[in-house]
Amino acid sequence: MNMTIAGPDGHPRCRWCGAAPEMLHYHDTEWGFPVSDDHRLFEKLSLEGFQSGLSWRTILMKRENFRAAFHDFDFDRIACYTEQDIDRLLGDEGIVRHRGKIEAVINNAQRAQELVKREGSLANFIWRYEPDQSQLAKPQSVSTSAQSIALSKELKKQGWKFVGPTTVYAFMQAMGLINDHADDCSIREEAERVRQQFRRPMHSMSDF
Known about the structure:
This protein is mostly helical. It has helices at 21-29, 38-51, 56-61, 63-69, 75-78, 83-90, 99-119, 122-126, 146-157, 165-174, 188-197; strands at 4-6, 12-14.
């Protein structure tokens, strides 16, 4: 199966981004580009958790609503949420109103605070799980990896929720820990160039 389609400019793009205009913009400007900002990393982990059982397009279309509802995914603020906040979120029609997932974000915010105290930042911890090039599968051919399984296992050990290996792998794809753009996707080279210039928080851990 051909992994790409022609974009509006005639250049090839990963096939999945043809589902909607907002998906194309997300693909071209965000997906696969490295991120070291803790709030963005926490946001993406949270939204991947909300996506469970749904499509990413559904979540992406609601992303600004999620950001407003969760104080731009400032985990220090979310960690202090009360039952009143849960009721507020359950009444917010602009987001996915799932009590378990909402409570997981609050729990994970508290776990994120603990992790930052130990590691200095989320980025310091997460970027240790960047795979070596020799460990990468063919683009978009798998839904988990040794690294996503290891990161998922460690997060669960620390008490995080909704962070299974598939969720974590999608997070790693999006946050640029791997470049999973199709080989002939016109954005792949740009994403790799940015990855090469990216200053990683810590050395990678590739011995899983």
